[in-house]
Amino acid sequence: MCDNLGGNAEFIFVPNTINSIGDFFILGGRIMNIIDELTWRGAINQMSDEEGLRKKVEEKSIGVYCGVDPTGDSLHIGHLIPFMMLKRFQTAGHRAHIIIGGGTGSIGDPSGRNSERVLQTMEQVHHNEEALTAQMKHLFGKDNITVVNNYDWLSKIDLLSFLRDYGKLFSINTMLNKEVVSSRLESGISFTEFTYQILQSIDFHHLLKENDVELQIGGADQWGNITSGIDMIHKIEGSETEAFALTIPLMLKADGTKFGKTAGGAVWLDPEKTTPYEFYQFWLNQDDRDVIKYLKYFTFLGEEEINELAQKVANEPEKREAQRKLAEEVTAFVHGDEAVVQAEHISRALFSGDVKLLTAAEIKQGFKKMPTVEIKSEVINIIDLLVSTQIEKSKRQAREDVANGAIYINGERIQELDYQINPADSFEGKFVIVRRGKKKYFLAEVK
């Protein structure tokens, strides 16, 4: 368990009681309750009954859950924020539960939206469920983790039972005042999405009864839904029943924009959507003003090591050591250690121009967003290749650039005008890499 913590969190103090677990971390020389750790990391936005929750996590291993609806077939880095907190509870010895919302995902969560979601087919929902389940099992492993699908119980509730057993417990007035609903009143909200908070409440109650789950974690926009679940639990099970809520702050970048969005769109955890190299580069390119906050959120490094990196950002920002550590840690967590080695290898090759050391698989990653042209598998003269692919506008310009040493083929400077390129000679016969000048790369893909 300690191996996952990294940094200076080298051991865990376990109180001498039968039910106690390892939820006291040694960080920066201080004994920390996991709630203290989350507070230090800036990871708590709101929390219900803080005193009760602190006492509970000190007494025993509790059940904690976070959910995600299968609106797509991959998580993106925005999803990582609450799930990193769930991972911390799991690492501390608590029982992590993940709901894949096959039921709730079929109707649509109104949270964080100003318009209705487009309903997916059930076939698409089921496909997404399978993909997300596989991702979660990869991130959380097998210890202290349970992955469930709320379709399994929500689909068994008939309409009359829903209205009699659950609808009667919810006040329309209270539901209208929840931010997730009130923010949509002007633009409009369907009855389908209006009932979402009831379904999420049923989830909390189900996990409490079936899996002894007492804490739900979510993003800041989930506070209303989670507290609705606590209210419903108290009405059904009694006000003395313990159930807790913890939400994560909305994460904004230093420039005020929402974290996780780039010019190219979302940064996905699926390596087919965002390659591990692209994923690594995303973290490597973070602003100095944001990197320490992200190290606290997205890594398991201890307080002392993060403070040391903060000093390096202040004193030697040009070295970008904090960004490099961030990229290494998050890429290793999501894609594994080998992906980090590969991403760094690609980065060094592109920086040095020594691309001949790359494999075909690494080229596919590193050149994904670079200009790509198509060539045939046959031998071709260098001038003809440059002109036919429109890398050069004319034969005259192509000859001039070759003669002047501005053209590199597969990392080698070529100055012979009669040079013949055989695509079969490099990168498994799949690619030819052309570089013009110092940094302008083109990927010629063999078709």
The CATH class of the largest domain is Alpha Beta
| pLDDT averaged residue by residue | 87
* Number of helical segments with 4 or more residues: 19
- Largest sheet report: 6 strands, mixed
Question: How is the topology of this model organized?
Answer:
Blueprint: E1 24-27, E2 30-33, H1 34-40, E3 46-47, H2 50-59, E4 63-68, H3 77-91, E5 95-100, H4 122-140, E6 145-149, H5 151-154, H6 159-166, H7 172-177, H8 179-182, H9 191-194, H10 196-211, E7 213-219, H11 223-237, E8 244-248, E9 261-262, E10 265-266, H12 276-284, H13 288-298, H14 303-315, H15 321-335, H16 337-352, H17 360-366, E11 372-375, E12 380-381, H18 382-388, H19 395-403, E13 407-409, E14 412-413, E15 420-421, E16 431-436, E17 440-446
Parallel strand pairs: 4-5, 4-7, 5-6, 7-8, 11-17
Antiparallel strand pairs: 1-2, 3-8, 9-10, 12-15, 13-14, 13-16, 16-17
Helix pairs in contact: 10-11, 12-15, 12-16, 13-14, 13-15, 15-16, 16-17, 18-19
